[in-house]
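Researcher: Batch entry, complex prediction.
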Amino acid sequence: MVRQFRQLTIIGESINDSVPSTHQLLESGNLQALVELACKQAEEGADYIDVNVGARAPELMAELVRRIQEVLDRPLVIDSPDIQIAEAGLRAYDPARAGGQKPILNSISLGRIEMLRLLAIQPCKVVLLVSEHVVDGRTSLCTTAEDSYRAAQKLVELVRETGFSLSNDDLIIDPGLTPLATDTGGHLNRVLQTFVRVREDQDLAGVHFVVGLSNLTVMLPSKRADGSPVKGPLQNAFLTKAVPLGLDMIVASTSRRYSLLPAEHPAVRCLEQCIANPGLAAVLAVRDFYKSGGSL
Amino acid sequence: MSDYADLYQAILEGNAKKAKEVTERALAEGADPLELLDRYMIPAMDEVGRRFDCQEYFVPELLIAGRAMETALQLISPLLAEGGGARAGKVIIGTVKGDIHDIGKNLVISMLKGGGFEVIDLGVDVPAERFVEAVGNQENIIVAMSALLTTTMGYMREVIKALREAGIRDRVKVMVGGAPITQRFADEIGADGYSENASGAVGLARRLLGLASSA
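Model: Structure tokens for the complex:
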């Protein structure tokens, strides 16, 4: 993996139940292969390794965390929306085996604030997912950057109220990147503007931002009409727009090459059209990108 | 009836403007709305689904074609209702409680509408009792559930249980879908059908209601 963004922290995404090949390894209980997957991602440059075991026994999460840490010194991301699975992972994590680095808990949102109590288990960093909020007692998706910014404010307030002494440097805001293939609701703009809004807030100075980068390009073909790739360039186009706004962490594939693209690159132009014309026109712009050829 | 193959082509290409123009012209020329639907519009969406299945089309094309279909449907729907209802059937759909992912569900809705179904969207985070309420005393309709999380898919079982307890399980067909869902899971929880993707959901819904595929 080549990385032109020195400031970009990469969390290897592969150990996730939603990845079909990993799902098979989890189904068959092949922990050794999962540990090897962690090592492979570390070799390819992952700064963190994400660990998501799906809806399985909390003990499996604990066991996998221990097994990975036996052979690897990278810090881990404990990734589960289930409080018991997340708790088991955090309890099993030994910072001494990762050069003293804290684990990252992924994630707490306003829809599951009971997970705040997990911050007491040990010093950790935490992903605050701000793509959802609670309106009239029901959890729903944020539709504007203002919704997401307010969710961030509220979550930070709740984290501080716990008294578990997390600093802004321990907080990682995830605006919830959604697929371009279906983004008729202006979510790309919501994500980018959330970075802007949070950075304007002095009280939140020093917080980090993360996105699940692969999510941007799911449901798209792998090649354009001329045979050039679709997904890598669109992901890089997003980074080209988002890194200057403060994005400094990605959950991503370690086998891709991440780089800044020139402004005239077709993928950047495609993304700019999506930004300028939210709605079905944005989806049309994406279709036109892969239906046409002519890469740089 | 004159040939309105342009309508088929407009929907296939996702050209909403052209779909609207041709439909308006056809209706002005006295075309039978039901025939427009059966001869051009639904076959166009079936072809969209076929192209999606063999990866000639991708999700953006599904959405764009779905929008063109909807544009034409809006023009002919009021006329169809007068003619005694020509819908393919009715689907009540929602993302189950605890889960607020709506992308897959909305795609399925778009394709079902394109396939001529009437769709009642209960939204996301839908508790079992809302599915039960929505069914009410209707019969021969479909209850469709979506979940994206392995931690929420189990709730589909609760919905089926609630339908059974309300005594209406036999009056509906239950279909399920979403990234973590498999045929095995669908069988385990006693659903009537599972589709891996949005285009397959249309054929499944037709089969479950005993409707002939127009493909």
